[in-house]
Specification:
The chain is of the alpha/beta class and about 450 residues long. It folds into three domains: about 5-85, Four Helix Bundle (Hemerythrin (Met), subunit A) (Up-down Bundle), CATH 1.20.120; about 100-290, Rossmann fold, CATH 3.40.50.300; about 305-440, 434 Repressor (Amino-terminal Domain) (Orthogonal Bundle), CATH 1.10.260. It has helices spanning about 5-15, 25-40, 45-60, 70-85, 115-125, 140-155, 165-180, 200-210, 225-240, 255-265, 285-295, 300-310, 310-325, 330-340, 345-350, 355-365, 370-380, 380-385, 395-405, 405-430; strands at about 100-105, 130-135, 160, 185-190, 215-220, 245, 270-275, 280-285. The chain has an eight-stranded mixed sheet, sandwiched between helices. α3 packs antiparallel against α4 (about 70-85), α4 (about 70-85) packs across α11 and α19 (about 395-405) packs across α20 (about 405-430). The two termini are about 25 Å apart.
Amino acid sequence: MFDELQERLGATFARLRGRGVLAEADIKEGLREIRRVLLEADVNFQLSREFLERVEKRAVGIAQVSSVQPAQQLVKIVHDELVALLGERREGLRLSTVPPTVVMLVGLQGSGKTTTAAKLAYKLKGEGRQVRLVALDVYRPAAIDQLETLGRDLDVPVYSDRSTNDVARIALAGLDQSRRARDRVVLLDTAGRLQVDDGMMAELARLKEAVRPDEILLVADGMTGQEAVKIAQGFDARLGLTGVILTKLDGDARGGAALSIYGVTRKPIKYIGTGEKPDALEEFHPERMAGRILQQGDVLSLVEKAQAAMDADAAKKLEKKVRREGLDLEDFLASMKQIQRLGPLEGVLKLLPGVNARMLRQVNSDPNRLRHAEAIVLSMTPHERKQPEIINGSRRARIARGSGRSISDVNRFLEQFREMRKMMKKASAAGGGRLPPGMFGGYR
């Protein structure tokens, strides 16, 4: 997501950083490159022009202030304008004061609507809300089967009725069941079409009139770029959207839809889909996303991800043990298992400041490194894990055979472990700062 945009903008700002004062000509040169980058990222032309006009108005004449370089000030200006372009602030789900909150999910066929409904149910359930899914794609029995299967996998109830094609009737029956069960949220998975047509919109309008939803969210395929923006305009004109969920952003290196959809429709992006797993649905924060685009990182999202994925009690016990006895390979293995819960390593690295597409390509060259490290540790005896100093040449050869790695891989891993242990000792002696176990897993 945004890989090309990150790389090109990073290169543009790097060229400007070497200049002490930015003249108007420098600003215009940089803005021309930014304009080219935005258009190549498939950002709406009119939005690109207005964005650059605002940046130029604020940027021309900036000088060095309090040791802050003009190029750094320009980055701040671009960041602020990106936040405005993306929606200014986070807008969460509107929760009704009288449950259940009714959320109607609409979109074209193939946009990922059914899987997104399940992901949203999983997310809301994880927040402690009782959720129910209602299957309204009556024209594709396979879609009903898919939703029921997803519901069983996630332990979320699904209401369906294959005896009728009257979606309003099915929805009202599902809502009645939901009220009796005292559900907090009901998600309506409606039927999609291959294109926006009058019949589809008329059916959705009748459904809206019958159930009076609290939210009408468009599920749009982020990889379709400006087509997603046009689809959003069409749905909004007929239904009055309250927000958008962009899917498949993990496969979209350009990000034009995310950068355009709010500016064109003024409808907030509420969630983004970043993968296929049930937990691959993120809340959309304009400020955090602007930071990611400018390679400033998104540490808040990383902290939230860690809090959700990691076992806090196990982390505290591990920290105390490391402080008292030092780091051994048993601790390292426990730490790696914690890290793996955060998801793919490249997804975690994207949230760190300064990580660019080139660095991620290096990571992607061996996406299984943590599993390789785990295999090496598991091929050791308990005694070797406790006292890695005893691992001599013959032991290394045995560990290599057992893990399916080369002896040089084992040697490199042990060397990195020794360096990490030194670093942990220094950090502990330097001031007693907390040592999060997630910092232990640096095998490369």
